[in-house]
Design a protein that fits this description.
It is built from eight helices and four strands. The protein is mostly helical.
Length: about 220
């Protein structure tokens, strides 16, 4: 998040920073007694100078929203902070109160059955766990994370990781099929793979045979 400009028709920059803190109190993110972000931390977060944050905190202190504890930092004060937060909330047109998300009875029944381990999921072609080489997959995953740990937190853009595409192409060699890794595309799941395949080989109105009861 960035707060820009030192001054404008909307007021000084430190006014915007103090307004940001008031909105955090109004949303309940900061409650009475909570410690406010440090001067240095908030300056980095909002991309403003420490002196600007200090001015904003001094203003909030004058308003009674923040109080200082020596050698500890700034803390949200009680009743005055709540009053100031209510004033901010009244100026906000969007409700900040969360609403409970409700599903229909059919969805709730489906989710309940899907989480039942005794039920076989015929809705998708999912192999039984005991048929999968889980231990080998875990070891392979650990080796991959040791060799390339950055891949655990990065997105891989199309057409996919080149080493994975080469390995998939090699797996076709025993079948007598020559596959160019450049013709292999890694998708974001089976649904995307099916959609891309159908878009490639079919046209609107074509008849497509699928397995049943899976899809």
């Amino acid at each position: 998040m960035t707060v820009s400009a030192t001054a404008s028709s909307d007021g000084f920059l430190y006014d915007r920073v103090s307004q940001h803190l008031l909105e955090l109190v109004a949303a309940g993110t900061l409650k009475p007694g909570d410690r406010a972000p440090s001067l240095r931390g908030l300056s980095r977060q909002l991309n403003v100078s420490i002196s600007t944050v200090s001015q904003a905190y001094n203003r909030l202190q004058d308003m009674g929203v923040l109080r200082v504890k020596p050698q500890s930092g700034y803390y949200v004060d009680g009743s005055i902070a709540a009053t100031s937060a209510q004033a901010v909330q009244r100026r906000t047109s969007v409700s900040r109160q969360p609403r409970k998300v409700r599903f229909g009875e059919l969805f709730e029944e489906i989710f309940s059955v899907a989480n039942d381990p005794s039920v076989v999921p015929f809705g998708a072609a999912v192999p039984a766990v005991e048929l999968m080489p889980v231990k080998g997959m875990v070891r392979a995953t650990q080796r991959a994370l040791t060799r390339r740990p950055e891949q655990a937190v990065n997105y891989c853009f199309p057409p996919g990781d080149v080493e994975l595409r080469r390995e998939i192409a090699r797996r076709y060699v025993p079948l007598g099929v020559a596959v160019d890794p450049d013709n292999v595309i890694i998708t974001s799941g089976c649904s995307e793979a099916l959609a891309l395949s159908l878009q490639t080989v079919t046209r609107r109105g074509d008849i497509v045979a699928v397995e049943s009861p899976t899809y």
